[in-house]
Design goal:
Elements: E1 6-8, H1 9-31, H2 46-67, E2 76-78, H3 82-101, H4 103-118, H5 123-144
Antiparallel strand pairs: 1-2
Length: 155
C-alpha cells in the first residue's frame, strides 16, 4: 500500500480542525481533573477549561468554513516538502534543547530556521529578525509577565 503524499487545501484544513478539537478535548479532560470552583471563587480548572472551550469553538468555526470549500479543482499541497520537514525537525530539536540551551538561544535559532526556510530570506536577515523577535518575546514573558523561562546556559 502506497502512502499518499499530497492533500488538498480542504483536506488539510479539516485535518487541522480535527486535531484542534482533539487537543481542546484533551485540555478539557485534564482541566476537569481539577476543581472548577465558581465565579466568586474560581478553582484551578476554570481558566484551562475556558481556553479549551474557546479552542474548540474556533476549531468548529474553521471546520464549518473548511467543509464549505469546493472539492473539485483544488491544488494539492505536498505534505513532505522540504519546508514542512525542516519546520517539523526544527520544532522537535527546539523542544529537545529548550531546557538545556535556554529560551533565548533556542527560540532565536528556531525562528532563524523558520524565517530562512518559510519566508525565504537570507541567513543574515533571518538571524537579525530572529534575535529581535526572541528578545522581544523575552521582554514580554520574563520582564512584563514574570514568566519563568529556561535561562541561558552560561549565565
Amino acid at each position: 500500500m502506497r502512502m499518499r503524499r499530497e492533500a488538498t487545501q480542504r483536506q488539510g484544513e479539516i485535518g487541522v480542525c480535527a486535531a484542534m478539537i482533539a487537543i481542546a478535548a484533551g485540555f478539557a479532560w485534564a482541566a476537569l481533573q481539577m476543581p472548577i470552583g465558581d465565579l466568586s471563587l474560581p478553582g484551578p480548572a476554570l481558566f484551562p477549561l475556558g481556553l479549551a472551550a474557546l479552542l474548540a469553538l474556533a476549531a468548529l468555526v474553521n471546520l464549518l468554513r473548511a467543509l464549505r470549500l469546493p472539492r473539485a479543482g483544488e491544488a494539492s499541497v505536498g505534505l513532505f516538502e522540504r519546508a514542512v520537514v525542516v519546520a517539523v525537525v526544527a520544532l522537535a530539536l527546539a523542544a529537545a534543547a529548550f531546557e538545556a540551551a535556554g529560551f533565548l538561544v533556542v527560540f532565536a535559532l528556531f525562528l532563524a530556521v523558520l524565517f530562512r526556510i518559510l519566508a525565504q530570506v537570507g541567513w543574515l536577515r533571518a538571524a537579525i529578525l530572529a534575535v529581535l523577535v526572541a528578545a522581544g518575546a523575552h521582554l514580554l514573558f520574563v520582564r512584563a509577565l514574570a514568566v519563568q523561562l529556561p535561562p541561558l546556559p552560561f549565565g
